[in-house]
Amino acid sequence: MKRSILATLAVASLATMSLTGATAVHAATPGTAAVTTSVTPSADVSHLRAQFNAHVAGLDLDAETRAAVEAAGASDEALVAAATQSLTQLTGILTDAGVDSEWPGAIDPGDYQCSTTDFREWAGGQVAQIDPESWDWYRNGFLGLSPDLLVQYWALMRTPTDPHETALGPDGADTDELARTFLSLQRFWDVDTSNVGLVSLDGKILGPDASADRQFVYAGIAKISPLAAIFLELGVEGGLGSGMLDGFPGGVDNPMFSLNAFAIDPDHAGDSKEMLETLGITRRVAMGQGILQMWDEIGLGRVGGRAVLAHEFGHQVQYDNNLFETDITDEAEATRRTELMADAFATYYTVHKRGEALNKAYTLQNLETFYNVGDCSFANPGHHGTPNQRYGASVWAADLTKGEDNQGHILPSMTFADRFERALPELTAPDAN
Fold first, then answer.
1. Which of 56, 149, 353, 400 has a CA 20 to 30 Å removed from the CA of 24?
2. Given CA atoms 353, 183, 303, 341 in this order, what sign does their dihedral have?
3. Crossing angle of helices 76-97/42-57, nearest 10°?
4. What pTM was estimated for this model as a whole?
5. 411: helix, coil or strand?
6. Which residue in 330, 342, 290, 300 sits closest to 126, CA to CA?
7. For position 37, what pLDDT does the model report?
8. Best CA proximity match to 390, nearest among 4, 17, 117
C-alpha cells in the first residue's frame, strides 16, 4: 500500500475509520500523513489544561521534559498545539510501520459499482450498541491521544511473537489453525520470513488487570516522546477511571477494539525505523480478535481468518521484494495496487494445492471475504478498492491457480507479482453501467 518509506494499511482498518463521525480537524507535518484530532470547545480545553497541570505537577521529570510540560500547560493554545504535535508524531510512526494511513480518494464513484457489505453492516451494528461518550473517548482520548493508539502500540510492542503462544479467536479457539496457516505461509513463499512473528490485537490492555502492560507502553513511548506518553496516559487512565469502559458491551472483549489486522517490518519504515527499534518492535503480523469474531458472526469463520492472515503475510512478501516501490504518483491508487495484490497473493495461497487447498465451496467463502472488506468510501483516505475490485483480484488469483498445468508448482513470488501488474488495469477498470 505504501511507496518507499510508507508501508501497509491494515486490511480491516477502513471499517473503524469510515464508521466514526466525530467532527475533526487535520494537521500534518512534512513526511507524515494527515492526522485527525477532535475539535474541543475552549472551555473544555481549559478544563483539560487544569487536569494536565495538576497531573504533571507531581511527576518526577528531567529538566528538559519539565520545560516541555510547563510550556504545554502555559495556555489553552499551547496545550492543543503540543497535543497535536504529539499525535502527529505517534500516528506518523504508526503510518510508517504500516498500521495507519490517511490518503485522498483516487477514483470517481460514478464510474464504479459499489454497495454495502455484511462486514460494514455488522460493524455499524456494533458501534450502535456502544455508548456514544465511551466511543468518543476511545477514538479521541486526551486531545486525540486515545486508547485506540494504546491498543495499536500494545500490539506492536507485545511479546511473545511465536504463533503457538498467541491466543487468537474467542477463548483462543483459532490459535492452532492460524498458527498452522502461518507456518505454512512461511514455507509456501520463496522469501525469507523466518524473522516474522504473529501477535494478537485485542482490547485486554484496557482491562483492570493490565495496568502493568499499559505502563510498559507508556514507558516505551516516553523513550521517543515523554510529552506524548503523558498525554496518552492521561487520556487512557482518565477515561478508565471514570468508567468509560462500561459503555462497551463485553468490556475489553468488545470487537471494535480489534477490528483490524496489519503487517509491519521496521526495516521498511523509513524515517521511523530508529524509533520503532527504540520501542523494541520487530517484524510481525497482528491479527485482531474483533475481525475473527466478525467472520464467525457473518458466516465466513471457516475461511475468513485464514484469508486475512494470508493477505497480511502477502504484505510481508511485498516487503521482501520491495513491491511497495512504484511509479504511481497518486497515493490512494498506489495503496489500492498493493492491497489488491495482497488479496491476490492470499487467494493464490489459500486455493493452491500446496497451500490451504480450499475446495469449491470454501474458495467461494474466500472470495466473499475479500468482497466484504471492500469499501465504497471513495473520498475516504483509507479507500482500498471497491468490493467488486477486491473480489475480482481474488477471482483472478484463483483462476490462475486452477489454470496451472502443474498443480504442485508454486510460482515464484516475483513472477506472480509481474502477472498481477499486467492484470491490474483490467481489475480496476470502471464497471458502472
1. 56
2. negative
3. 80
4. 0.88
5. coil
6. 290
7. 40
8. 117
